[in-house]
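REQUEST FORM: STRUCTURE PREDICTION
Request ID: SP-0412
Submitted by: Lab K.M.
Chain count: 1
Length (residues): 182
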Amino acid sequence: MAARIEAVVGEKRTFRVRTERFEKLVSQLDHCDDPELRAVALELVQNVVEWHGAALERMLESISQTQAGEKALDEALEDDLVASVFLLHGLHPDPMETRVLRALAKVRPYLQSHGGDVELLSVDAGIVSIKLKGSCGTCPSSSLTLKSAVEDALYEAAPDIAELIAEKSETELNSAKLVVLK
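STATUS: Completed
RESULT:
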C-alpha cells in the first residue's frame, strides 16, 4: 500500500514538472520576437496534437468493441493523466456532470469528517453550481480549506469547467448578519 501511494505521489510530481515545463515553453513561444517562427511552432504543435488525437480516437473505437476493452478503458480513466489527455482531445466518454458527481463523491468523506458537505445544484454549459454546507461552524479558515478541497477535486476531474459557482451555506449567510462589537 505504501509503495502504491509513493508511486502515485511520484507520478503527480512528474506530471506537475512536465506541465510546468510545457507552460514555460509556451510562454517562450508567446514572447518570441519572430512572428513567422512563432506561427510555424504553434502550427507544428497543433498538428502533433491533432495527430495524437486522431490516433487516440481510433484506439478508443477499437478498444470499446469488447467488454474487456470497455473495462480496461474504465480503469484507465481512473488515472488523472489519462483522463486529462482524453479531455484535451474531446474524447472523454463521460459527460461533465458525471465527472463532477464522481469528484464530489470522492471529496465528500473529507468534508463530512470536518462537519461539512456539498450539494451539486446544476451543470449547464460548463457552469457548475454547488452549495457548500456546514464546514465546522463559522470558522473562516475551515470554510476556506473545505472550499479549496472541493474546487481542487472538481477541477481535477473536470478541468473543462468554465465557471464554478459556490452558493453560500446557511451558516455563512447567518454569520454575515452578525455584528462584532468591540
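NOTES: The first strand starts at residue 116 and ends at 124.
Reviewed by: T.R.
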